[in-house]
């Protein structure tokens, strides 16, 4: 059992993070789903109250930085983005972003919305840590690294995963939301100082009594969410990769013109209904999958803990077919959950996959394939 000695400081709307560039507010988007109207509302909030941009996160949420003017909570509530003030920091839900669009064993669309509604209706779950994460995986294994996840093993059946591990508890799709909330309630009641299920000595103690199958290892894959994507119904979806997951208010409104969207855990945005790609490019929005391979934390001067202006340094890099994440300090904020090249700022340079290199040689260090 982990023993935490400090309070959970995960930011939200009411409890913002005091960053070097001003208060940072995180807005939860359960399942990454956001309607066109809410995209426009976020754009207006960023312009009127923040630094003018909307920043995507690795949990498929969004952040507003430099929020120095009042009124954000009221605007988000009016837009339907803040349904429960008491639960706003615990509405953390990932879902396979391509579900119902292309591939997958089951369609998990709608499950995040149902869980969010029922989560907010249970007062005890407001006490969950802000880092606790729910997941609905359509079978491909792209969002299994959560605290508690329903992973499809067929169109209407799935298995419950605890901290990414198969528990052997088979649950129907219709009962998936109830199963995940049952686990969460037990965790909230018994967690002690733990923030994540993986910190418990025996995560299986969170499961209700009942029959279990033998746990199995299942393959995982992350399918491309950027570019032109042929839908299973013969139509076309389009995914965009904002540079470092940062969107201007104008770009957000351009996305909204093509309907509802899905923010992915890889800081891309999927437009399931398709889009005019030339118009996206004219707005400065990339549909090149290579753009999504390179990510970076906010770095200096936005973060006082950062040892470098990592986004300026990263802007000159090429990922070249490998995921690369550049961090300003050892906390590695925003790093992807899957395999990636690890680039961390240190005084005078960077450590690339564990090997120190001067900042001037960063591109050459990344050109060496694989860890050194």
From TrEMBL:
InterPro entries: NIR_SIR_4Fe-4S, NiRdtase/SiRdtase_haem-b_fer, Nit/Sulf_reduc_fer-like_dom_sf, NO2/SO3_Rdtase_4Fe4S_sf. It comes from the Bacteria. This is Precorrin-3B synthase. Keywords: 4Fe-4S, Heme, Iron, Iron-sulfur, Metal-binding, Oxidoreductase. PANTHER family: BLR3264 PROTEIN (PTHR32439:SF9), FERREDOXIN--NITRITE REDUCTASE, CHLOROPLASTIC (PTHR32439). Residues 202-233 are annotated as: Disordered. Signal peptide: none annotated. Residues 25-69 form the Nitrite/Sulfite reductase ferredoxin-like domain. GO terms for molecular function: 4 iron, 4 sulfur cluster binding; metal ion binding; oxidoreductase activity. Residues 210-221 have a biased composition (Basic and acidic residues).
